[in-house]
Specification:
This protein is α+β, with helices and mostly antiparallel strands. Among the domains are: 80 residues, no CATH class; 97 residues, Immunoglobulin-like. It is built from 15 helices and 10 strands. The chain has a 4-stranded antiparallel sheet, with no helix packed on it. It has a 3-stranded antiparallel sheet with strand order 1-2-3. Strand 5 and strand 6 form a beta hairpin.
């Protein structure tokens, strides 16, 4: 049982094993959002993550104007949507397992569509996306390579390219075979080690995934893709103390990459450093002009842990405005109703607008 001190009310208790409560204020303060955000036992989860990297057919990263979204395969309802970041990446976390259509759009390029069957199997899906120009235009200069790219022998680069093609086609076994050959040819091929680690992770071989990612960073400490992947992997395994230095190093190398701060928030929350988690989440929010709605839910959870109930309530309102039918929406509405009746909210606008906020 967990004891929670409500503001202006008696202590409340929550049994996270069966969800029973002894007071109406319980869910707002103890474990409700904690469980919603994927920190319940993995066996109870029916969600997966989708990570994607977007490039043009000449390997160019589009710095802006590119958007990725997931739609249900039959009703075409939008489940998640976000702009691709300046590194050409997007990351949809904790998506309910079912069949989807991934759609990537960018001005001047053909719309990319790829079915993804997440109904069973892996907990992480990796999509390497190549956009084709809608018309012949001069393209921008390709981004600088990883340090080890130029040092890799031709045979290693050839195997890497085969692995990338297989990965784009969702042929994970074939991708793993070619990427493994690439790193056998040249063990310090950081890009190939990173992508091999991503394949291992998707196949739930986490020990090999970690080994490949650490090898990538030992060969090229400045290859931030490996740092992001390793930090996410360590967080997923709840090794939060190990994740923090990896993510902090990545943030130093790429201070504008909001994903590092988002994952740092996850790690600090896992360590029960709630004030530090708040700082990291707010930093991620400031760097992403269109942050995922989940970030607001995570901030709400932090505020609940800190007993900052009005701030938590405001973040829940923001989430419902952004995703009124989102997967957290029913639970959040219930929590907000309990907050209204429990006496933990201060007077003013939060209390006055309570009825409108929770239809």
């Amino acid at each position: 049982m967990v004891e929670v001190a409500g503001r202006g009310c008696e202590p409340v208790f929550f049994d996270p094993l069966n969800g029973e409560v002894c007071h109406a204020a319980l869910k707002l303060a103890a474990c409700a959002l904690f469980l919603l955000l994927g920190l319940a036992p993995a066996s109870a989860q029916q969600y997966a993550d989708v990570y994607g990297r977007v490039r043009t057919d000449q390997g160019v990263v589009l710095k802006s104007g590119c958007t990725a979204r997931l739609e249900t395969d039959e009703q075409h309802e939008v489940v998640a949507e976000q702009p691709v970041n300046s590194a050409g990446e997007f990351y949809f976390r904790q998506i309910p397992k079912r069949r989807y259509l991934l759609i990537v759009t960018a001005e001047g390029f053909e719309t990319y569509q790829q079915p993804i069957d997440m109904s069973e199997g892996a907990s992480q899906y990796i999509e390497n996306i190549t956009l084709t120009p809608a018309r012949k235009t001069a393209s921008a200069t390709a981004p600088p390579p990883a340090i080890s790219d130029a040092q890799a022998p031709k045979e290693a680069r050839r195997e890497y390219e085969k692995g990338e093609r297989a990965l784009a086609a969702r042929k994970l076994g074939e991708a793993r075979e070619h990427l493994a050959k690439a790193v056998d040819e040249y063990p310090c091929y950081a890009r190939a080690q990173t992508d091999l680690g991503m394949v291992y992770s998707q196949q739930q071989d986490y020990a090999k995934a970690e080994a490949a990612l650490r090898k990538s960073l030992s060969c090229d400490a400045g290859y931030v893709d490996a740092a992001v992947e390793l930090g996410q992997l360590l967080n997923a395994e709840k090794r939060f103390g190990e994740a923090v230095p990896v993510l902090e190093q990545g943030a130093r190398l790429s201070p504008a990459a909001w994903q590092f701060y988002f994952e740092l928030g996850v790690a600090q929350y896992g360590l029960k450093h709630y004030s530090a988690a708040e700082v990291e989440y707010l930093k991620a929010q400031s760097l992403n002009p269109n942050p995922p709605a989940e970030l607001g839910v995570k901030l709400a959870d932090v505020y609940l842990k800190e007993a900052a109930y009005d701030k938590a309530y405001a973040k829940m309102q923001e989430y419902l405005k952004a995703e009124p039918q989102g997967r957290f929406a029913p639970h959040i509405k219930e929590i907000m109703k309990q907050m209204q009746s429990s006496g933990v909210l201060a007077g003013g606008e939060a209390a006055k607008g309570a009825a409108k906020a929770t239809p």
